């Protein structure tokens, strides 16, 4: 199906991806149509092995080789100079391409069977919650795709780390499942910078990575983040007659039986693995507001806080 120009949804170790032949401009444009994705937002290219990187990237620096040896297959996306043969739709017309090797056996089997690079953003409508289960995919894309490969719940729960190797020192474009400390152990200092805006379609420098828009990863139900316990904000919303969902990792009991409360693990990996599934659950529960108690500051929570703050920025 991929070789014929179709759209295939497949699981990765992070979230489900909406894939098309990365070398077929018409197929890649089909991704943008299905998602309602703006044309100035590039997509990640998935490959089966390091040798396939040469099909989409013009160079392979030593830093890339070191990172790939340590983290691939896995949830690390590297931004590299693009090959000229790559359609502009993949890169939003920019000079770089974001590429990775996924770790999920279904994703790898698809890549090997297709024997070509697959462009694949998350399999959701643009700006909405990324899917970690097949039913999440169908909620937004049913009738817009050709094939869905159901691999069950994805393990990682949030999107890959994106590191720009065309900058010196390398620049963290999107925090993810691989933390900054692990990257710096391989390549030395990494710039940390949260990009708040994405370039307009007519600007000359499009973004080098997906996941940089302020409105992203958001449920349809308005979501707000609070520091500290969050109970006071929940009580305020209840007093207004709102139906409330509350996401926290506090050990204290929920004092409001009328609130849909979901407690997530207190470790970053466990929290990330369940976050989107919980938000999907609350999003279909007929609530007026979702309140999320933010986890602590610090590099280990950087990816989770990034996703939550972008979800809140959407409202």
Describe this structure in words.
The chain is α/β, with parallel strands linked by helices and 315 residues long. It has two domains: 8-192, DHBP synthase (Alpha-Beta Complex); 223-313, Threonylcarbamoyl-AMP synthase, C-terminal domain (Rossmann fold). It has ten helices and 14 strands. The chain has helices spanning 25-35, 50-53, 62-71, 88-91, 105-114, 134-141, 180-187, 231-239, 268-283, 302-313, and strands at 8-11, 16-21, 44-46, 76-81, 96-100, 118-119, 147-148, 161-164, 171-174, 191-192, 223-226, 244-248, 260-263, 289-293. The chain has a ten-stranded mixed β-sheet, with helices on both faces. A four-stranded parallel β-sheet has the order 11-14-12-13, sandwiched between helices.
Describe the secondary-structure layout.
Elements: E1 8-11, E2 16-21, H1 25-35, E3 44-46, H2 50-53, H3 62-71, E4 76-81, H4 88-91, E5 96-100, H5 105-114, E6 118-119, H6 134-141, E7 147-148, E8 161-164, E9 171-174, H7 180-187, E10 191-192, E11 223-226, H8 231-239, E12 244-248, E13 260-263, H9 268-283, E14 289-293, H10 302-313
Parallel strand pairs: 1-7, 3-5, 4-8, 9-10, 11-14, 12-13, 12-14
Antiparallel strand pairs: 1-2, 2-6, 3-6, 4-5, 8-9
